[in-house]
Design brief:
The complex is a heterodimer of chains A (486) and B (211). With 486 residues, chain A is an alpha/beta fold. Chain A folds into 2 domains: 302 residues, Rossmann fold, CATH 3.40.50.10420; 77 residues, no CATH class. Chain A is 50% helix and 10% strand. Chain B has 211 residues and is of the alpha/beta class. Chain B has one domain: Rossmann fold (3-Layer(aba) Sandwich), CATH 3.40.50.10420. Helices cover 21% and strands 24% of the residues of chain B. Chain B has a 6-stranded parallel sheet with strand order 1-12-7-4-2-3, with helices on both faces. The termini of chain B are far apart. The chains are: A alpha/beta (486), B alpha/beta (211). The interface between A and B is large, with 106 and 74 residues. The complex binds iron/sulfur cluster (SF4). The site of iron/sulfur cluster (SF4) has 14 residues of chain A, from α14. Chain A: This is Lactate utilization protein. Chain A: Keywords: 4Fe-4S, Electron transport, Iron, Iron-sulfur, Metal-binding, Repeat, Transport. Chain A: One of its GO terms (biological process) is lactate metabolic process.
């Protein structure tokens, strides 16, 4: 795994730092509530939402069950279309492959479009160690990179920065990396965006190597798709001579038609738009249009281990929309950095401990950073039952250390954090009932898949009961500030 | 180089072992709709949704198109326009701005000096306010609709307009490079204020040509 988060303290310790930061708290609350409400409206426009959600889940489950077949089909199609496919078992191997590919071009600079997979493997740091500068081009990633910072939200990684801070970062840092910010830069969002446009355009126009992830890969055609807003993705995917895409093996879907489901559910769940401004789809290379060399690096890095877990494997359905973050009362109060990984919020709480294992304090504590309110499940466009996986992972943590083990203590502390913030529990209950009405409990014409259910089951054990039981076993609750009760 | 990789075999073996014995998972029941819009409401809905995402929408008939394109270029103050190889001749018949043909050797830096681009499209989707380009002869290479700051896109209505996303899929060839465009480029990364125009064209004008 990336070195970025090594030594991360357990969840409640990290959350305390975030709580003390008033800017973060205010920005986070405003952002999550705004997106949450917009999303509900965008989803309500489609009266077949429940059917699209079920189809998305089925496509992913079917793919995961037959993943070997679809990966081979994808490899064949990409190769036939002029691309080269590489396989990386872990982060080190993926970083090695990418660094070698960049070096082979003779370049020492690359432009990057926001990609969670490359953050997960710590690619920028690995390239820097080889003398290669990787420039992030998404506005938020640029803010994070220039601020020498870590992302705190999947969709809006700089959500913890306000406009005044961004102005300061641009004014002092841009000039060190390329075109400086104009004199007298104000903190108006339009001016800040213009400064970023000018700073990055210079890089796009001379870039010879682009690096991306992908939201989807189509096995039957070898097509990759990147969904974005700003156009920096189009720049990175179109202008360079060499394109390298690092993509988790779970991102494959079988058919071209399967994209019609996610093209409807991803933008509405993510940015709460009917459609995001730009989506680029490409298949291998095209003569005279776009990069003349295309490399696809297929990444495992803990995914096959996740796939082996009968309950936990549903986390691999995730399309990284971030809807679950925006409804989560724990995320809202703790902030993204508390999760100690590039995957924050509810999805991070079930994905990180599976990708990395539960051997560290942070990963053992993450499954406990939840009140199991179920709001995340209800908004998830691929119906990942996050509470179910959390309970399952708690069980795993409980079995690995034994009483008094340091991992158990980390877990109990995280649970204590949740319990000590009554607002988390209350807001969780409110969130669950508020979103429930968006999801009809019975779906029209559901005869064909009566096995599926639309509302989450009650958690096997209520959080309060669980807490009482564990506390009576002698674990001390975490200290830390009281919640403000909101 | 990939077939020789030991990781390829290792990953595939791990995948197979991971799902060994798991129950078969059926493919999707495609019970969702292919459109949510009645056929006669599509063109109006497209116009509405494009405008909602701050594209400038114009309507014209075939005869009025050259004058309209000329006016839009003039209003934008454009001195040059990128031209796809198969753009119908009449579309630019009303203007004498400098034409920059889309050629394989044109560099991004050269395109950066071009003010506008005029293209057709492959299909338009009413419910999402989306136009899709497939690099066809009337659209050209992807970079000509990316680097210039002003994009005028002509949509033939109603032939090129579908209601929902699923209706667009069979009209598109995924082996071609595809660009789905829904409004001008935008960001909400600064305190969630939507700002139009970061890297893609900051002005998107869509002309719906009817009849
Ligand atoms: S778990 Fe579901 S809601 Fe959360 S990011 Fe993934 S797809 Fe979206």
């Amino acid at each position: 795994m990336s070195g970025t988060f090594v030594g991360m303290p357990s969840f409640p310790t990290a959350a305390r730092g975030a709580l003390a930061d008033e800017t973060l708290r205010g920005n986070l609350r405003y952002a999550t509530h705004t997106i949450r409400d917009k999303r509900a409206k965008a989803v309500a426009e489609l009266d077949d939402w429940a059917l699209l959600r079920e189809a998305g889940k089925q496509i992913k489950d079917h793919t995961l069950r037959n993943l070997d077949r679809y990966l081979l089909q994808l490899e064949e199609a990409v190769t036939a279309a002029g691309g080269v496919v590489h396989w990386a078992a872990d982060a080190d191997e993926a970083n090695r492959i990418v660094a070698d590919l960049v070096k082979a071009t003779g370049e020492s600079e690359v432009v990057k479009v926001k990609s969670m997979a490359t953050q997960e493997i710590g690619l920028n740091e690995a390239l820097a160690a080889e003398g290669i500068s990787a420039y992030e081009t998404d506005l938020a990633e640029l803010i994070v990179q220039l601020g020498d910072d870590r992302p705190s939200h999947i969709l809006v990684p700089a959500i913890h920065r306000n406009r005044g801070e961004i102005r300061t970062i641009f004014a002092s840092e841009m000039g060190k990396w390329g075109r400086a910010a104009p004199d007298g830069l104000s903190d108006a969002p339009g001016e800040l965006a213009e400064a970023a446009r000018l700073h990055l355009r210079e890089k796009f126009l001379r870039a010879k190597v682009g690096i991306s992830g992908a939201n989807f890969m189509v096995a039957e055609t070898g097509t990759l798709a990147v969904f974005e807003s700003e156009g920096n993705g189009r720049m990175c995917l179109t202008l360079p001579e060499t394109l390298i895409s690092v993509v988790g093996i779970e991102k494959v879907v079988p058919t071209w038609r399967d994209l019609e489901v996610f093209l409807q559910t991803l933008p509405r769940s993510s940015t709460a738009e009917r459609m995001n401004p730009y989506t680029t789809m490409w298949t291998g290379t095209t003569d005279g249009d776009g990069p003349s060399a295309f490399h696809l690096v297929l990444l495992d890095n803990g995914r096959t281990a996740t796939l082996a877990d009968e309950t936990g494997r549903q986390a691999l359905r995730c399309i990284r929309c971030s809807a679950c973050l925006n409804v989560c009362p724990v995320y809202e109060r703790a902030g993204g950095h508390a999760y100690g990984s590039v995957y924050p919020g509810p999805i991070g709480a079930i994905l990180s401990p599976q990708l990395r294992g539960t051997g560290s304090e942070i990963d053992a504590s993450l499954p406990y950073a939840s009140s199991l309110c179920g709001a995340c499940y209800e908004v998830c466009p691929v119906a990942i039952d996050i509470p179910e996986v959390l309970v399952h992972l708690r069980d795993r943590v409980a079995h690995q250390g034994g009483r008094g083990h340091f991992l158990e203590r980390a877990a109990i502390k995280a649970a204590g954090w949740v319990f000590e913030h009554p607002g988390v529990l209350a807001a969780g209950e409110r969130a669950a009932t508020a979103t429930r009405k968006l999801h009809p409990s019975r779906v029209p014409g559901a005869g064909a898949w009566t096995n599926s259910r639309d509302l989450p089951p009650m958690p096997p054990e209520s959080f309060r009961d669980w807490w009482r039981r564990n506390r009576s076993q002698g674990a001390a609750p975490a200290g830390g500030r009281k919640d403000d009760g909101s | 180089m990939s077939p020789a990789s030991p990781s390829r075999d290792r990953i595939l073996a791990r995948v197979r072992a991971a799902v060994d014995g798991a129950p078969e998972a059926p493919g999707p029941a495609r019970t969702y709709r292919d459109t949510h819009t009645p056929e006669d409401g599509r063109v109006d809905l497209l116009a509405e949704n494009l405008a909602d995402y701050r594209a400038l929408v114009h309507r014209s008939d075939e005869a009025g198109l050259p004058a309209l394109v000329a006016r839009l270029l003039a209003e934008h103050g454009s001195g040059s326009v990128a031209v796809p190889p198969g753009l119908p001749e009449p579309w630019l018949a009303g203007t004498d701005v400098t034409r920059v043909p889309d050629a394989p050797g044109t560099t991004a830096a050269e395109l950066d000096a071009v003010d506008s681009v005029v293209t057709g499209c492959a299909v338009a989707i009413a419910e999402t306010g989306t136009i899709v380009l497939d690099a066809g002869p009337d659209q050209g290479r992807r970079r000509i609709t990316l680097v210039p700051d002003h994009h005028i896109c002509v949509v033939r209505a109603p032939e090129q307009v579908v209601g929902g996303v699923p209706q667009a899929m069979p009209r598109l060839d995924p082996t071609r490079p595809l660009t789905w465009i829904s409004g001008p480029s935008a960001t909400s990364d600064i305190e969630l204020d939507r700002v139009e125009g970061v890297h893609g064209p900051r002005t998107l004008e869509v002309i719906l040509v009817e009849g």
